[in-house]
Specification:
The structure is a homodimer of 168-residue chains.
Chain A lengths: L9 H7 L5 H29 L3 H12 L4 E2 H8 L3 H13 L3 E5 L7 E5 L1 H21 L5 H25 L1
Antiparallel strand pairs in A: 1-3, 2-3
The structure holds a DNA duplex (30 and 30 nucleotides).
DNA sequence: AGAATTTATTTTAGGCTTAAAATATCTATC
DNA sequence: GATAGATATTTTAAGCCTAAAATAAATTCT
């Protein structure tokens, strides 16, 4: 004996299925694995081709955009990671000779970090290849599909941010 | 003096812009931050409400789906993480009394892991709330938009996987 | 059966990450 | 100028994660 499906509007949907979030959970899972697949490959290639980790690449990307350099605090904000995290990454990149750390002349607490000449050359080479990898991985999407995804992911991010704000 | 735009098919597109992957890079960045926002909040709430980490939750989710339990190797495959990683997670969950580790009766190398009764109760409670959080974060997306995202993300994943296969 | 190979797991060494405490310096205020 | 609070950074303790080596048991081959 089958039940007839009842057409639902947005309002009644929630009332009908108070604890069912199947599609949203599927979407979350797919978003996650999609990002995992792409990121895993970027990590692998960075390591294989340039013997560098993704976090160090990301840090260098920030510095490449700001040639005059920035403080550790600024870096930590832009990368959206903790201060202590940046301290360690900077240590290792300085040791590799890819970036340069100098005490600020106006604030003795602060340090200014910058790409070295070698770091800049190295980063530019990596960035070009990285662009190709990404282009390659998204190659089967049409321009139209890319734009749709950009739009819907922006909407998703906004929706999530609102939910987060509500919850605090 | 403006140049007239030339209509491009998929073939010529690559030839015209050999090193330009702007939209793809934007899409990658957006995918990344989108996932970061949602995941960050899930981690935060798991920690705050249940004092549990996301990797441990994920491991328990695998076990909840397979009541008869599974070996560490199976777990590591399903979670797509390394063997050594699973060893540590299992250690800590056993210590918390949420899962149970027993030597396999047919293979003395292997161990079978299962949720304990308490672990199952605890996981089910968490999973219900987690579903609500996710539903909440995706609340502004229509059913239609969710379906579009599901479809396009599946296509993205397939495209990335092909590129990865090509590269090896 | 004995030897070689494969498989399941753990260990090791190293890097990433965070929250919270500690340190050093700066700024504002009295 | 002394003091109190704010800010920049580092340190610490703990967990997550991987690749590669080590261990132990099973399987396959002769």
């Amino acid at each position: 004996m089958e039940e007839r499906p009842i057409p639902l509007d947005a309002e009644t949907k929630v009332a009908e299925r108070p604890h069912d979030h199947k599609d949203e959970l599927r979407l979350w899972l797919r978003l996650f694995t999609c990002k995992e697949v792409v990121e895993g490959e970027v990590r692998r290639r960075l390591r294989e081709r340039f013997n560098l980790t993704l976090p160090r690449f990301d840090l260098m990307a920030q510095l490449d955009r700001t040639p005059k350099g920035m403080t550790l605090g600024e870096l930590s904000q832009r990368m959206m990671v903790s201060n202590g995290n940046v301290t360690g990454l900077v240590d290792r990149l300085v040791e590799q000779g890819l970036i340069d750390r100098q005490p600020s002349r106006i604030d003795r607490r602060a340090q200014i970090v910058r790409l070295t000449a070698e770091g800049r050359r190295f980063f530019r080479a990596m960035a070009r290849e990285n662009g190709d990898w990404i282009g390659d991985m998204f190659a089967e999407l049409s321009q139209n599909e890319i734009e749709t995804l950009l739009r819907l992911l922006a909407k998703t991010k906004a929706s999530a941010r609102k939910a987060i704000a509500r919850a605090r």
